[in-house]
Amino acid sequence: MKRAPALQPLSHGHQHALAVAVMLRRADATGAAEAARAFTRFWHAEGRAHFHDEEEVLLPAYAEFGDPGHPLVVRVLVDHVTIRQRARAIERRAPERIDAAGLQDLGMLLASHVRLEERELFPLIEAALPAAALAEVADALVGAEGAR
C-alpha cells in the first residue's frame, strides 16, 4: 500500500514492531525470557518514541481536520495505554517469572494494533490532512527524531 511520505517513518517503525510481535507470539516456556528481553529492547529503542510521535504529532495534526473522538483514534490510544501497561509489567518481573501466554497475547495485540494503524488509521489521516499539513507532520517527525 502506498503511504504518504509524511507517514513512511511511522510505517517503517511498524515493520520492527511486527517482527517483535512474531517473536512474542511464538514465545513458549523455554523462550519466554528471551522474547521478553527482545520486546523490552524494542520498547526502549523505538516503541515508546513511536507512540509519543503518534500521540504528540500525528493525532493532534489529525484533530485539526478530523474528529479527535473518532473510534479509530480512541482505539489506537487505548491500545497504546494497554501496551505501555504490559511493557511495565514485563519490566517488573524476573525473567524466570515471565508468562509465555501473556507474551503471546501481547504479540497478538501489537500485531493487531499495527494492522489497525496501517489499514485504517493512516488512510483516514491521509484523506483528512491537506498536503501542507502532511508536510508539517513530516517535519515534526524529523524534528522529534533529531531531538532523541
Estimate nothing, just give the exact number of structural domains: 1
Q: In angstroms, what separates the terminal alpha carbons?
A: 29 Å
Gross CATH architecture: Up-down Bundle
Largest sheet: none
Calculate Rg over CA atoms: 16 Å
Mean pLDDT: 94
Q: How does the helix and strand content classify structurally?
A: mainly alpha
Global outline: elongated
Estimated helix fraction: over 70%
Compute the number of helices. Answer: 5
Q: What sequence of helices (H) and strands (E) makes up the elements?
A: HHHHH
Low-confidence stretches: none
Number of beta-strand segments:
0
Per CATH, what is the topology?
Answer: Four Helix Bundle (Hemerythrin (Met), subunit A)
Explained architecture:
The relative contact order is 0.20. The protein contains 5 helices and no strands. It is elongated, with a radius of gyration of 16 Å. The mean pLDDT is 94. With 148 residues, it is an all-alpha fold. The protein has a single domain (7-141), classed as Up-down Bundle (Four Helix Bundle (Hemerythrin (Met), subunit A)), CATH 1.20.120. The protein has helices spanning 8-25, 32-63, 71-92, 100-128, 131-147. α1 runs antiparallel to α4 (100-128), α2 packs antiparallel against α3 (71-92) and α2 (32-63) crosses α5 (131-147). The chain is 80% helix and 0% strand.
